[in-house]
Amino acid sequence: MNKITNLTKKSTAIVAMFALVLSFVGIQPERSRAATTWDVSGDYVINMNYDGTDYSHDVSLTQAGDDSLTGNGGSPAGANVYTYTLNSGSVVDNTINFTANYTATADAVSPQTVLSVEGTIAEDGSMSGTWSDNYQGGERSGTWESISGLASGLPGSLAAEDFGVVDYDTGLGQLRGYSAGFGLTDATFENVQSVVVKLYAGDTLLQTNTGTAKIGDEITGNQISSPFDVSGDFDYTTDGFWTNSRESEYGQSEPATKVVATVTLENGKVVTAENTNLSGDPETIYPEENPETVQVTILKYVDGAQATGISADNSDFTMNASWDAENIGAGSGQYTLNENGYNGDPTPYQAMTVEMTSGADYSTSEVMNELTGASCEAETPYSLVGYTSGDSLSAAQNATIGSSANLTNITSDKYIIVWNDDCSTATNGGNIGGEVIGSEGELEVTSVEVVDGTATADGTYENGWSYVFHVTVPTDETGLAMKFANWVKTGDEAETIAAANNMRISSDQADNGGATVSVTAADTYTSPDLNLTGDLDTEEDGLQVEILVEVRIPAGTDNGSYTTNYGVRTQ
Asked: I want to staple 337 with a disulfide (CB 3.0 to 4.6 A). Which of 12, 33, 141, 317 is the partner?
């Protein structure tokens, strides 16, 4: 059983649980209803042929939302001496089948006669097929066809609209790639079951966009556009509408020639559309294979946010650096991250390297001294959490924190973030083991309750994971926030679930009436704070509150167990 020992607390309190154990997962695959284009609900007269003679039957069918069938029938048509009730049935694409138990006349009920019917729905809605039963313990079979009543085709069709090369700032990064638009007729995207758009070069798959639950919830019209980034830094995670999957060659050297969309509508009908009419020149969006020079930008983050003179107390953080580039040679040295910026760049706690020849190597590390320690146990004002890097600032912000920042063969500009904790506000510790020990009235997580530890990968909170954190909050620090690292699959660290836009927190003890606060970036405290006013146990020191943490699992996520790290802060 691990204990969490509180350190000296000043104006805020933080519980930072490293190597958090929340591995209660077994992701269930998303379940979709069978695809069909027909609704057979209605009344029919069918002829069932046996030994060359047609016997007319009345049949009444009801098709449910999952394409299952209920209903009843009888013969002869109009008189129904022999009656039966469906006990199972379904419609899949243009195929219909059902079984029914006879319910009238002793010779058909004892022994029980079971009728089995299989058939095909024609383009005009008429139906025909084969039947069999076990009347009086024997075996009978024949053919059947509808002579009255027609199945109805489900509404909805999809058409390709625009397909072109794009290069513009979206506000969520530069989209340098392709955009493909599609439109529905006699249907909308409201409550759509799934949307998948695939980008091809000939028959070679380049990228796949799978729609999240936001499509259908927020896009309710009849048009949609799907972005395929090739050499920009478009942030799919923050955008939240698409899960983007890329093949090894995803359009950076091979031009796209085709886009195919497949949509499963609310009524279960599957519609597709293809566009091979590309506008624009793909060569304009290819990245430079070997830019002449590259730069690395280094930023300091304290408690999950970019440092300022206030948050870093105007401290000077000493950094080591080493480099090897054709234009400046190999070397090493030190520089300082402080409130004044670096080398003419006035941005606080940010530094940029000189331009280095493409293919350069660069590494940086923070000096452990009286200002920064490896952990808060060193009794330094700050502790080093680790480093992240990426091709863009947003990529570095959302990357998994590691123990080093070593870049080799750099062929594009890079970003490195140095993550620190403020030890004056931190509580440091080990693994959650079921009990957390702290001082009376101090911030502590007393337990984590698993409400739902299994999930369906359908992008909804309703079918995701949920946990209740039981927390003691200091009475004079009622603003509470949480942060989470990206979830990592056990046994396969390459498989992750982004914390950003897939998690949210709420509390019935907050005066915002239970409204949720979303996690918008990994390892960054939520904003705004939950304003806690309730107390579940007034006999205990501090406020006793419950924080509901909900996680939704993006469609296409691999099955398995996942873990994350978390932190809790009050102020």
From this structure: 317
> Could you give phi then psi for residue 349, rounded to 5 degrees?
55, 45
Which amino acid is it at 48? M
The angle at the Cα of 524, spanning 557 to 393, to the nearest 5 degrees, equals: 80
- Number of helices and strands in the chain (H, E): 4, 44
Residue 12: pLDDT band (50, 70, 90) is very low
For the record, the structure tokens of 390 come out as 């990426």
In this prediction, residue 449 carries a pLDDT of 82
CB of 372 within 8 A of CB of 418?
no
CATH architecture of 293-422: Sandwich (2.60)
CA distance 448 to 337: 38
**pLDDT > 80? residue 24:** no
CA distance 287 to 300: 29
CATH code of the region 38-153? 2.40.128.30
Copy the structure tokens of residue 16.
């930072």
Nearest to 230 by CA among 173, 269, 270: 173
Position 400 scores a pLDDT of: 82
Mean pLDDT of 79-87: 95
CATH class of 157-285: mainly beta
